[in-house]
Amino acid sequence: MRDSGPRASRAEIVLLAALAGWALFPLVLLLVHAAHTHTTFTGANGLIGADGVLGADQLQYLAWARDAATHGLASDLFTLTPSAHVYLEPLFTITGALSLIGLSLPLAYLLWTPVGVIALFLAAVAWARRAFPNELAARAAVVTLALFLYTPLTALFSWAKLGSGPFRFQLYLLGDEVLAANKLWGYVPSALALALVPTALLAVERALDPYPKLDPGRRSGLWAARGGPLVVAALASLLASWLHPWQGISLILIFAGLAVWRRLRSALALAVPALGAALPLAYYYVLGHTGAAWKLASQYEVIPRLPALVLLAGFGPLALIALAGISRPRGVVIEQAMLLWVAACFVTYFVNDAFAPHALQGLSFPFAVLAVRGWRRLRLPAAIGAVAVALVTIPGLAYDARKFVNVARSHTVQYYLPTADERALQWVRSRAPAGGVLAPTPFATVVPSQTGRAVWVGDGYWSQDYFARARQADALFTGRMRPARARRFVLSTGASLLIADCAHHAVLRRALAPLVGSVHRFGCAQVYVLARRSSRR
Prior knowledge:
single chain; 4-stranded mixed beta sheet; two-stranded antiparallel sheet
């Protein structure tokens, strides 16, 4: 089947609609439930783990954006230890700026979702058209797999609850990292970074071989033709690395591999986008070695490297088809880059210890091309191929959709706030005296994003000694601390305000009487303002 021009095909339009629907699915569920239960949506609409929800990540993003709106650069608001304003991230900074012109902070962040949808879709289409420029069916298969690939055994084990709990969770995590479309569920920076990788690679190909059909001796203006694509490649690499450092590491490895593969003929040109990818990595390296909060987060291994058995089970069935699609690149830049992309993902995975599975994001793009070519090379029927594409996409997507339906029906504080809690936070944001906040978990996770105030404990990545601190805070707000110990504890935190949400009913005024200056009640939520002489911040 041949394409008659560059216009979008019906299949591509359907896939764009499917991607947009998938991106908006959790947001619609959360907003509908919030309206039905008369609660306030916090702005978090993140991914779901195999055993819980991860909305706290988006609340951290919103906290950075709110802090950047006030100070230009963001600091860590999940500790009362002084944290310098040193974090600059383009998406969060722009989000904060949008909130200054009247948009609510959650809405400002959610505006990035359609941007992510368009960027990810266009990247997949450009990648597919480069691989199969005149074949609509092959292009549609590539776009589908690049966006919606869900490792088949992950879906099977998740639906049937096969294997042990830890193994099933690890396999689920692998499938979730590979699924590009899921990055639109609250993780738009990752989605945009992923879209920028094929953009950079296609621009590099244009720069290295701007006139592929002409004889080298007849190519005039060669360096001029290279300049524009090199600038595009450098900017795409810089932004991809800035938004998601794992993509930056992979891009540098790809560019280095291309230089070696081409016997250093294009080393100087490839150094330009490599430098673009390296600059944000250098910035993050400095942050991780100079700031206490950033050092803590960089060393916190919440997602360890997955066992070999999980990788084999997740990638094994897919690799058999993809291997059949490998052929000698014969000097074609994009063919070399595609193979190097696969290798770079795994090298980054095994070399980088920080959240290693994130390095596997993007594998669906090169795999999609190799799988379609492999299917053809094995001369398997196209009809069965369509069924195979459905099997490695739909069951996994359906499983994730079902999980988020269950999340949307819950009362998880990362997503919903009762009216009383929202009123208390609004008062803290606009009228409370200056100072940091002590609040129970998980409610404390919401405080920085909604108020711009720092909390003593709130996020597992960014709060020092999170679990020990969370136990202490929860003991106070559930009334399990004796008065003398409670007063010593509150003084030791340096907080100026205490917020008791509606899930914690203990009355603290009597236990903390010498410290409390005033109490403000908002239905079932209460804010305790400590006397100035008692607070340290």
